Amino acid sequence: MKNYFKLFALILCIGIYSCSSSDDSGDNGGGGGGGLDPEALYRVTFTTNFTETTHPTDYPDNASFGKVFLAAHSPGSNIFNVGSIASDGLKLYAEDGDLSNLVSEHSGGEDNTLMTIITGSSSVGTSTTVTFTVNITPTTTRISFVSKISPSPDWFVGVASFDLVDGNELIESASIRLYPLDAGSDSGTTYESADSPEPGAITQIEGLPFSSGTIASTQLGTLSIERID
Prior knowledge:
The protein has 229 residues and is α+β, with helices and mostly antiparallel strands. Helices cover 19% and strands 30% of the residues. Strands 2, 3, 4, 6, 7, 11 and 12 form a 7-stranded antiparallel beta sheet that branches. Strands 5-1-13-10 form a 4-stranded antiparallel beta sheet, with no helix packed on it.
């Protein structure tokens, strides 16, 4: 009888210890659950390389890039996609440099908490560097970027929904080459082409005036992303 009592006591102790261990594990997991860091700070650097030396064909006298539009957003949000029709806000910005509609398209509403928008205060030179900092959360792990090429019918450089997540971790850094894109709302083959509305999809520009003949367009700059926290 004593042996049965000892066995029962041993089983009871094991059960209590197991429950205690399970509770501790749950408390530790509540701080992040093995997922992404709650927040991270990134430096985003736009470096331009669009000069008469790098792009001699039909190079305009007053070349520049427009005010930057930068967004950290959820995977479900979308600023633009190559091959798709540009939003009205992106069309207006690519044609006239007016950011107001593009910003308003992605501000407010239920999705406002899943997007951080940063805009530049002025145009950007053709051989320079501008830097921004953006806060990233577990729900805003994509980076999108747009800057108009000026003058142009509706051309811009941009990055669409770049993913900052690699596996279960945020990346430390990345460098993305920027090539000319056509918003698809205004036709024209030169920087100073007259307005000629011709709806179409967003495409990457190949050949003239960004390179000679049918050679693929040359790079206009880079977007560098670096975690700094």
